[in-house]
Amino acid sequence: MFSKKSSEKHADPVAGNGAGLSDEGAYAQDSPVRYDELHVACPPHTTERRLMAKIDLRVIPFISLLYLLAFLDRINMANARSFKLQADLDMGDTTKFNTALTIFFVPYVLFEIPSNILLKRFSPRVWLSLCGMGFGLVTLCQGLVQNYAGLLATRFFLGVFECGMFPGCFYLLSMWYKRSEAQRRYSFFFSSTSLAGAFGGLLASGIGKMQGLRGYNGWRWIFIIEGAITFLVCFAFLFVFPSFPEQAGWLTEDERAYVRARLEADVGRNAAERKLGFRDVLTVMRDYKILLGGFMYFGLIVPAYGYAFFSPAILSTYNYDPIQTQLHSVPPWAVAFGFAMVVATLSDVTKHRFLFTVGPICLSLAGFGILMNVHDRTDVEYAALFLICMGTYSAMPVIVCWFNMNLGGHHRRAIGVAWQIGFGNIGGIIATYAFLPTDAPFYRKGYSICIGFVCLSAFSCVLYFLAITWENRRRDKAVHDVGLTDYEKTELGDLNPDFRYMI
Fold first, then answer.
1. 136, 201, 229, 479: which could form a disulfide with 330 (CB 3.0–4.6 Å)?
2. What pLDDT is recorded for position 10?
3. How far are the Cα atoms of 29, 80, 149, 210, 490 from residue 226, in angstroms, in the given order?
4. CB within 8 Å of 418: residues ≥ 6 apart
5. How far apart (Å, rounded) are the C-alpha atoms in residues 214 and 208?
6. In this structure, how many other beta carbons lie within 10 angstroms of the beta carbon of residue 447?
7. What is the pLDDT of residue 397?
8. Residue 135 and residue 188 in contact, taking contact as beta carbons nearer than 8 Å
9. What is the phi-psi region of residue 328: left when phi exceeds 0, alpha when psi lies from -120 to 50, beta otherwise?
10. Residue 38 domain-assigned?
11. Which molecular function term from Gene Ontology is one that the record holds (predicted)?
12. Full domain range(s) for residue 377
């Protein structure tokens, strides 16, 4: 948070260079003025709690549904594999399936930062909705391919259209909420992945019963139906999807001003009108803390995608048939969603992030340790999958929220989160080759690789914690008033001497 001196300049509704709420027009002279915890004046016709509930209803459901659809279309290859995908496309027991998973990540990694720049230029409503229509259409086409080359082509373009989903939605969320209230929203959004895993397993078990309908095997129907649903939903999003607070027509002028003022009191001016360019990318990437943010996420992507892509294959080694395999994949995802929300709530209540990354990471390590050493107790191995899913998918949203909300200003946040997600998803390439058919049924290499990368994430989190703790203490001891203009503070973002990182 900002220093006390910085926060106090927002106590007067007129102060803050127009960022606060003016008495003229916004308030009647005899209206009581209510202040929030940052001492920013609330509009007289509402309260902070009511306004946040209104924003939650207009923002969270849309981005959560969008990412659920995106993640579902991304991981449904794992479900399709159980319904003759490899046999129909002559993939055999080779690494062709792993290669088809890998090619998705090539454009997905390369285009993250350009996508966030375009999102800011076209607005989230337009850009994310068009991207969603694109990956929905590509998923549908994936169900119509006739050979392996066609599958590779569709997987590549799926990565092109999906690259902006995750960083774009996280970036949008960060422009609406203060750091102390963001984790529950981030985790609910991120837990769309858990819901997608659970929903994907249920849907695949149902669609699998369409085997042979109109001459199509079940895997084709998985892609066709899920792709069609995505396209139709995202077409509707063109008209209703939320954008930045400055573009929210469903808020009144004084409500928009209040949202801007409370965020400015929390992290400083964001300069929403500022254009982004390549020079900004180079400037932001010179900060070593930005690099650490990438490694924090990178380390957990390997076990996250390893689980998402190969849990059905692991479950099939427990001698379940295809339908039972899909049904047994649902409970770990469902429990992971509930656990992630508990972790997020405790993190917001305590206004602390670090311990809520390390704790779940230890659960994930315990799960992989069990799978490495236990091979004759199906119940224990199945329980280990719960630990892996719970630990990995509850730590990841805390890591992304912690890093993202510690970035000040539109430009540093847009570039920083795109870097973290883009670099982190290189781990997806590693994950796709971690679990090879030749390593079944014990997958010792895959589990060993996952353990190594989980430890990398934990180590990076510790380094980031030490870095921002040291930086906060250094700024506490430094001279506060260094004569910076408002423009210079905006350009510095979280490098502003008044800024304090959340631990």
1. 201
2. 38
3. 55, 12, 21, 14, 43
4. 112, 113, 115, 116, 167, 171
5. 13
6. 25
7. 92
8. no
9. alpha
10. no
11. transmembrane transporter activity
12. 48-495
Q: What is the DSSP letter of 57?
A: H
CA dihedral 453, 459, 461, 464 (to 10 degrees): -130
Contacts 24+ apart (CB under 8 A), 177-182: 178/38, 178/262, 178/263, 178/266, 178/267, 179/1, 179/266, 179/267, 179/405, 179/406, 179/502, 180/266, 180/348, 180/351, 180/502, 181/52, 181/348, 182/348, 182/401, 182/405
Structure tokens at 170: 């996280």
Q: How far is CA 490 from CA 36, 92, 262, 294, in A?
A: 23, 56, 15, 23
- How far apart CA 405 and CA 127 sit, in angstroms, is 22
User: Given this model, what pLDDT does residue 160 score?
Assistant: 92
**In terms of pTM, does the model score above 0.85?**
no
Residues 13, 3: Cα–Cα separation, whole Å: 19
Which tokens go with 263? 């965020």
Q: What is the DSSP letter of 273?
A: T
What are the residue ranges in the chain where pLDDT is below 70?
1-33, 35-38, 267-277, 479-488, 490-491
Rounded-to-integer distance, Cα 170 and Cα 152, Å? 28
In the chain, the number of structural domains is 1
d(CA 210, CA 446): 33
Torsion angle in degrees (nearest 10) through CA of 74, 75, 79, 85? 50
> Largest Cα–Cα distance in the chain?
77
* Residue 100 lies inside a defined structural domain of this protein: yes
Whether the CB-CB separation of 136 and 257 falls below 8 Å is answered with: no
CA distance 205 to 80: 10
- HSE, CB side, 13 Å, CA atoms: give it for residue 48: 20
The span from the CA of 401 to the CA of 269, in Å, is 19
| pLDDT at site 168 | 84
| Tokens standing for residue 262 | 């409370």
pLDDT confidence of residue 404: 86
- Rounded to whole angstroms, the Cα distance separating 399 from 151 reads 33
Amino acid at the residue 224: I
Q: Residue 33 has what pLDDT?
A: 63
Cα separation of 332 and 385, whole Å?
Answer: 7
Taking the C-alpha atoms of residue 68 and residue 196, their distance in angstroms, rounded to an integer, is 5
31, part of any domain: no
Amino acid 71: pLDDT: 87
Tell me, what's the pLDDT at 272?
54
C-alpha–C-alpha distance, residues 403 and 349, integer Å: 18
Which CATH number covers residue 95?
Answer: 1.20.1250.20
pLDDT score for 102: 92
Asked if 324 and 206 count as a contact pair (C-beta separation under 8 A), the reply is: no
449, 435 Cβ separation under 8 angstroms: no
